[in-house]
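Run folding on both entries below.
>entry_1
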Amino acid sequence: MNTVMNEYRNGILQAWRGEQWGRAFFEQLAEATNDPEHRAKWKVLAELEEETGNRLAPLLGDDAEPTSAEDFPPVDTAVAAYSRLAWPQALEQMMTILDPAIERFRALLAMAPDEDRETVQLLFDHEVALKRFAQRELAGNPETSLEPVRAVIRRARAP
């Protein structure tokens, strides 16, 4: 396997593992949240991570395996830190990891073979949707904040 394809496969595997971690993070954050509106939003973000991970799984072949503890910070530690933050601060903190992830996924999209392009585009778009969600929330538009996220979920579920 050439270097670019090896880098691509490793990137897809890391992205899939990140989706598994993200799903667990948002699910646990929803459980730790007292505000029912915020709990519902965290659950939708967990759904986005799950659906994106489900779409990535077929690209992995035999590489889909449980996330290693070394790959990501412990979910419970991250949840504890986020659950202590006020809603705007939690969203601002989330935004700090989105731009680097968007750039990683943009690079994966550039490397993607034609047969994977639609799925990798969805991976990229899901990260952009998370950013738009946070931006809308922070701009005081909670009534429309989940629209980009729900649009990507619908695409991920489409046959």
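>entry_2
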Amino acid sequence: MSNYFIKQKNKLKKMKNTRFHHLLALALMLVMALSCPAQNREVLNNYQNNMQPLLEKVVNAPTDNERYNANELFVQMFDEALHVEGSFQWKWDFGTQVSVLTSSDRQFRIISWPVVRDNGEYECFGFVQSYNPKSEEYDVYVLNDKSDEIISANEVVLGPESWLGSVYQELIETKHEGKTYYTLLGWTGINNLTQRKVIEPICFRSNSSVPQFGQALFRREKNLRRVVLEYSRTAFVNVRYDEQVMRTYETKKVKKKKRTYTVQVPHEEKVKMIIFDEIAPLVPGMEGLPQYYAPTGTELAFIFLNGRWELRDNAQGRLDDPKLNKDFEPLPKNNPTYNMPLEK
């Protein structure tokens, strides 16, 4: 049933882009979400119920062997479940233990979670379930965390088999000239000393479902494919996508009493942006050692303009509430939407 509706959706794409056809396409996608056969819903519900106790062991079992044995079974069972017809429409609910993010256009879904070792090291696991325009079905890709083997992580394009493991907290969708761009915000605890946050574009190979992590979407940064922030395990670094009042300054020359002065004229407008903390070593001479890195107190912002993320080092986010809109007050920092215990 779901394959039938996917075929119908592709036929609609070839039709003229009238308002009627647009509304019809939206209605079709709504029907697709409800098109999982009843017998498959029962199968998927059974998978969910059987996977939950395994996940509890992944999180709470007292030894590495127990956690990894449970995780191996969890991955195997999840892989089987994602190959069941209608699984893309299924709402996987594992609370805060597993992150499940789905694009609004139903192009793909990304699932991620960590296993924490006795020594405090993290290894991430996950899947991408993405639409294949050739087969008109959803393909499933297992994500393999190769963080320890990746060199120059901010510069390389990666595939599912060699992934910079992260637990993704947010999926950002931006558009330019009719094309949708996807950007992920992720986090992982690396070890007892450091942790990492990433701002990572994800795209798909032409006319295929194969995901690619990292993309040249950062204006004036030729080799940058993702933003990687590694810092002290005891520090808190804010990375979030939010609509804020952006304050910028324009340099102007004004005349006063027959003299010309250069002044900075402030401008404010509401803009959606990725706001994040600048980080640097707190101890002089510790450059390159992330366990000494922490926020400097300066906030930076990426704004999506003309199909690229543009860095604004002078674009400080401002709250709408005038009582809180003070230059000396930073934006409030929220706890990450996903977190795990630092120690077992």
